[in-house]
C-alpha cells in the first residue's frame, strides 16, 4: 500500500513510520509533504531518499487554493492512504471528502476530550489522571472522526505540559506505525456506515 505523509515541522511521527516501513515490503512511503519552510522532518525524509514536497500555505491566498494544490501533488503519488502526522492545519471540507476513508490523523489527546490545540495543557487544567493519543479517520468536523486506536499514559502530579507531551509522544511513536501496519494489511478500514471495521482482532 502507498502512503503519503503530511507534516508541519519536526516530523517525529513520520520518522517512526518511515523507520518501520523499511522492513515492510507492503508499506511504501511515496512522499512526505510539509507546508512550512525549513521543516526538520522534511530534511530528514529527503536524506532517507524519500520524495519530498514543500508546499507553503503562505504562497496561497486562500485555504481552498492551498488545499487544491496540496491535493494535486498528493494525487500524483496515487496513495492508498494520506496520513496527517503532526499536520497542524485545518483542511477544507472538499479536501477531506476527496480522501474519504483514506485520510488519517493522530491527535495528542484521548478524544473526544481536548480537541484542538494545547491538548497537554488542557489535560493538566482539567485535572485528568489519564491522557494519551488518538488515531482516527478524518471527517469534516475537526478531531471528531471515527476512532481507529487510542493509547493512554498516566498524568503525574508534577507534570509540566512539556513532560506530559513527551510521555504522550512516546506512545504516539508506537501506535502510529502499528496502525499503518493494520491499514497496509487491510486489518482496519472505514465501513460504509461510517464506523471503523476491524477485520480480525489485533
Ligand atoms: C504530535 O504530538 C501530534 O500528535 C500532534 O503534533 C505533534 C507532532 O509531532 N498533532 P511530530 O511532528 O510528529 O514530531
Automatic annotation (TrEMBL):
EC number: 2.1.2.2
Pathway: Purine metabolism; IMP biosynthesis via de novo pathway; N(2)-formyl-N(1)-(5-phospho-D-ribosyl)glycinamide from N(1)-(5-phospho-D-ribosyl)glycinamide (10-formyl THF route): step 1/1
Binding site for N(1)-(5-phospho-beta-D-ribosyl)glycinamide: 11-13
GO biological process: 'de novo' IMP biosynthetic process
Keywords: Purine biosynthesis, Transferase
Entries under InterPro entries matching the protein: Formyl_transf_N (IPR002376), Formyl_transf_N_sf (IPR036477), GART (IPR004607)
Marked site positions, Raises pKa of active site His: 143
Limits of the Formyl transferase N-terminal domain: 1-180
Catalytic activity: N(1)-(5-phospho-beta-D-ribosyl)glycinamide + (6R)-10-formyltetrahydrofolate = N(2)-formyl-N(1)-(5-phospho-beta-D-ribosyl)glycinamide + (6S)-5,6,7,8-tetrahydrofolate + H(+)
Binding-site positions, (6R)-10-formyltetrahydrofolate: 63, 88-91, 105
GO function terms (MF aspect): phosphoribosylglycinamide formyltransferase activity
Catalytic site positions: 107
Family annotation (NCBIfam families): PurN
Function summary: Catalyzes the transfer of a formyl group from 10-formyltetrahydrofolate to 5-phospho-ribosyl-glycinamide (GAR), producing 5-phospho-ribosyl-N-formylglycinamide (FGAR) and tetrahydrofolate.
PANTHER family on file: PHOSPHORIBOSYLGLYCINAMIDE FORMYLTRANSFERASE
Name this protein carries in UniProt: Phosphoribosylglycinamide formyltransferase
Native species: Advenella faeciporci
